Amino acid sequence: MKVRKAIVPAAGFGTRFLPATKAQPKEMVTVIDKPLIQYTVEEIVGAGIRQIAVITSRGKSALEDHFDRSPELETFLEEKGKMNLLEEVRKIAGLAEFSYIRQAHMLGLGHAILMGEGFGAGEPVAALTPDDIYDCDVPCIKQLTDAFEELGGTVVVLGRVDKEGTKKYGVVKVKRQISERVFELADMVEKPGPDKAFSDLAMLGRYVFTPQIFEAIKKTPVDARGEIQITDAVRVLLDSQPVYGVLFEGKRYDCGNKLGFLEGTIALALKHPEFGGPVRKIIELLLG
Ligand code: G1P
Prior knowledge:
The protein has helices at about 35-45, 60-65, 70-80, 85-95, 110-115, 115-120, 140-150, 165-170, 215-220, 230-240, 260-270, 275-285; strands at about 5-10, 30, 35, 50-55, 95-100, 125-130, 130-135, 155-160, 170-175, 180-190, 200-210, 245, 250-255. By secondary structure, it is an alpha/beta fold.
């Protein structure tokens, strides 16, 4: 089955980013010249997916405005002859078909994805956390949809992490290796820490689910913090169908925390066609 839809959970408070996120959505924090969420949307579009549901909450209206037309701004840019900027601004609204679903209570990533049930029902659906910027030749979510279309089961993205990473991410246990980068999974635990981690393979914010994910989320018990974790829901899904992991090819920047955000900003600035050269010079000067 072809994957035509994607859910982008964007309802959280962005506590790891305070005070920057006190009065602006975390997803609108700028990396170089684009808000974080635009990187995710471009990744989705790069995989040929055009229907996107963003899970939002109070105080997130900037997200909707960003992906909408902006007639006054467009007229202004046109009158001033700023055609490149005009094209750039117009392009954003045409990237995809957007829906917005409000999550009234922030009850975890699993719960946020469940809010997309009406949107995704009966079809495979991708889910992407906008905290992560993936810089890959083949968009990360496309690496997953390709695997999904071949294997027909839920696929999660995997990356290798160090001991610290086992405290920040869901960690998996492998059942068998299918090919160089594809694994069938036996189990997974949310943020186990180094002592309880099954492996150094973590689930890093990209998923392609079979339609049964929503029933699995409903059966998933809440965790100690009162939240429904998507890692636990995928575990429930494992009782009735195989789940696969794809070790992605490319780079990932965890822009959901301050240091990862700085790393991502510097790395992407150095690669930027316009800023790469000047940024390198600035860094060299600063470092003396
Ligand atoms: C979430 C998931 C976790 C995953 C991570 C990837 O955690 O719960 O399993 O590894 O995203 O970024 P969060 O970052 O919301 O704490």
